[in-house]
Design brief:
Elements (H helix, E strand, L loop, with lengths): L2 H35 L2 E7 L14 E7 L17 E3 L14 E3 L8 E8 H5 L8 E8 L9 E14 L3 E2 L13 E9 L1 H13 L2 E6 L14 E2 L5
Antiparallel strand pairs: 1-2, 3-4, 5-9, 6-7, 6-10, 7-9, 7-11, 8-9
Length: about 230
């Protein structure tokens, strides 16, 4: 073997060693990335906006894969978790489904129906009303005609609370920004048809709707004469 052949063999060996070193380097980088990212798991992304209290089904979500370490602890990774559940708040398109966004659909008794309204967090809930609580629902109305006194009415007495939703920030209109509540909580009740109509009417036309928590063992009977209050009664 002459000197030229020896140089060729040496260069070939050096090329092989460089290629092997590059391969090892790539494997090292891949291994480092995998160790930092970790294994991937399934999550579920919301396809389009879902209104609060809507019954959920698998068609409202699309399956996506992402590293497990990037998911929050309450991310839903099994779509069967939505079975029998409803959205507790508005679910926005593109968001990942979280377990605190959904609640179990409350069971209703025969003759009852489910109705939910937004209650001012500062004046109506104060964190003390929970599912299975019993409350009186009050509404205040302005006088029907000029000069008529404002009235406070017990719209529904001994109403059963099914669910208390998540605190939600409200966005008042430009003209009444100073007069509206900034935070509210969705409260779901189990009511008969007439009481549900009363609550819907009060939410639409009353100036304020408030809840009064009833203590366990209290007498829930309210005399007809005590269901309406005006200031001149005092």
């Amino acid at each position: 073997m002459n000197s030229r052949q020896r140089r060729g063999v040496i260069l070939l060996l050096l090329s092989v060693l460089c290629a092997f070193g590059a391969f090892v380097g790539v494997l090292s980088v891949i291994s480092d990335v995998n160790s930092k990212v970790g294994p991937e798991v399934s999550a579920y992304q919301i396809k389009s906006d879902v209104p609060p209290y809507t019954a959920l089904n698998a068609g409202q979500f699309e399956k996506v894969s992402m590293p497990k370490r990037w998911l929050s602890d309450n991310a839903v990774t099994d779509i069967s978790e939505i079975s029998g559940k409803i959205a507790v708040t508005r679910l926005n398109k593109g968001s990942l489904l979280q377990s605190d966004m959904i609640v179990k659909r409350p069971a209703l008794q025969p003759g009852e129906q489910e109705i939910a309204i937004m209650i001012d967090a500062a004046t109506g809930v104060a964190g003390k009303i929970t599912p299975d609580s019993r409350v009186n629902i009050y509404a205040t109305f302005a006088g029907e005609n000029e000069g008529d006194p404002a009235k406070s009415k017990v719209i529904v007495s001994n109403a059963k609370v099914l669910d208390v939703g998540k605190l939600t920030a409200l966005e008042p209109g430009r003209d009444d920004r100073a007069n509206q509540a900034t935070e509210a909580v969705p409260i779901t009740f189990a009511l008969n048809t007439l009481d549900a109509q009363r609550v819907a009417y009060a939410e639409s036309f009353a100036e304020h709707v408030r809840l009064a928590l009833i203590g366990p063992g209290s007498d829930t009977t309210i005399r007809p004469s005590d269901r309406t209050y005006t200031l001149d009664k005092d």
